[in-house]
Give the backbone structure.
Amino acid sequence: AIDPQFDSNRETEGTHRGHDVWGPVEEPEQLGIHGTHVAVDFDVCLADGACLEDCPVDVFEWVDTPGHPESEIKADPANEAQCIDCMLCVDVCPVDAIDVDAS
Ligand code: SF4
Ligand code: F3S
Ligand code: ZN
């Protein structure tokens, strides 16, 4: 599962499509966490796809991650600024890869 305290326990290593990437990153096996308000642990995501299907405002988009041991696509929070804090994605992800900071 994603560490909900990732923003204290990790450091940003760069940005991707306008959102932060929290390390450690060692491509292609270790990809870190993408996003801050809507955060997806790419090392936990196994491409279930429920988050993309259920998000009412289409926050997520697939990105290719060839060579990652869990899955070769990931749900990227490409539009995290559109999030309305419904928490559906957090509830449906079977591996708890997503954290939404609704505070
Ligand atoms: Fe989409 Fe709701 Fe998840 Fe925000 S909390 S990313 S609106 S499903
Ligand atoms: Fe990945 Fe969970 Fe979405 S496994 S694709 S973050 S539902
Ligand atoms: Zn990303």
